[in-house]
Amino acid sequence: MESIPEEEHEMRFLALNFDSYGSTQKHFRGLDFSEKEEPWLRFRYKRCPLEGSGKTVFDFFSALLVVVVVPWKNFSVCSDMAPTQHNMAAVCYGPDDLRLVSIPVPEPAFNEVVLEVDSCGICGTDVHFLKEGGFGDQKLIRPLVLGHESAGVVRKVGSSVTHLKVGDRVAIEPAAGCRTCDLCKAGKYNVCLTGKHCPTKNHDGNCSNYFAHYADCCFKLPDHVTMEEGALLEPLAVGVYAGRRADIRLGSRVVIFGAGPIGLISLIVARAMGATRTVVLDLARASKRLEVAKKLGATAVIPIGAEDKEDDLVARIQQALGGPADRVLECTGSQPGMRISIRATRNAGIVCLVGLGNEEVQLPMVDAISREIQIITVMRYNHDYPAAMEIVSSGYVDVKPLVSHHFSLQDVNEAFRVAASGEGLKVMVHLTPRDSNNPVKFVN
């Protein structure tokens, strides 16, 4: 190799078998691929120290690369169909400060695709960021792109991506682990401490025209599945994970607290998993949502009034179920919901906490312990997109009735107002004209 200045090094090689999702990712994104006079792929980088290490980027990569020389004409970093439009995004700057701003159009890393986002549902966690500046340890520390219930169209493909091509319609799983920590190796990527979970304080969401994401977290949609249904796979995957964690079985008697989108999806999933009797509870003022629960097949719905006592609600639940609940999915995160969940559950039953609400609660723990009630939690999902896709694409479940409102990206502030007020169920933001990417028109 010719002599190369200290500050800039070039090597003619094709990088294979990268550490796809580890700490190399942040350095890889800054590297520059270019073709010079010779027909070889040339890899340019600048020497810079790695964090917490005396090694350089070159030292770090040289240990991870298999180096071969290949003709440039046989190697393409990505498709030539690159997005050229402006990338408008819904960015939260603080409580009740949501702005539509232009951000850079991303380029894909070797293991990513760039997506033109079509539809994006508004989730309660998005509302928490906008209204309260976050939730738990996820606090707003910078302007943050919101949104994560999305589906889009592949517009650009990284060099190592083989299962997707430009034009494919995909559902986007917005949570990915680092792939190298103990949690990821144990199969718990959903709670990886350094993973790419969108949106969280360190990672933008995808309510933007264009979004780069790991290709293996993008699931190709069949032609008969609409983009809106693709976006709904995200909350559906939450419901699937909750149902699995709660071990819902054939003949289970299930109580669901909360008739919001996650509560209603949990109802759909519980019935799909074999629950034969289901009761949904919510505040009396949420009567329209309780009516939807009834239409979706709930055995009974119970409106909760301001004067209702715990004992009375427990009695009404057991009367509707014909006995205590086998499983409870608590989707409100409220102290009353958790307390009644424990009290309404049979001995050795399972209470699954799904919703985010009160940060601290007082619970009847002696009752729970003495009756050996399992109290478990769920966060996001854990490889549940394939199952969610299957039950939707096969027609086993229908999630379309959950969509109550449609807004264009230009009206994103009004969309968030409706979502936060509880006026509707699932509020869908369209970043492209409705049905422009649907072979079959969305009807619900």
UniProtKB/TrEMBL annotation:
Residues 94-429 form the Enoyl reductase (ER) domain. Pfam families: ADH_N, ADH_zinc_N. The keyword Zinc applies. GO terms for biological process: sorbitol catabolic process. Gene3D superfamilies: Medium-chain alcohol dehydrogenases, catalytic domain, NAD(P)-binding Rossmann-like Domain. InterPro entries: ADH-like_C (IPR013149), ADH-like_N (IPR013154), ADH_Zn_CS (IPR002328), ER (IPR020843), GroES-like_sf (IPR011032), NAD(P)-bd_dom_sf (IPR036291), SDH-like (IPR045306). One of its GO terms (molecular function) is L-iditol 2-dehydrogenase (NAD+) activity. The keyword Zinc applies. Its cofactor is Zn(2+). Keywords: Metal-binding, NAD, Oxidoreductase, Zinc. PANTHER family: SORBITOL DEHYDROGENASE. Belongs to the zinc-containing alcohol dehydrogenase family. This is Sorbitol dehydrogenase. The lineage of its organism: Eukaryota, Metazoa, Ecdysozoa, Arthropoda, Hexapoda.
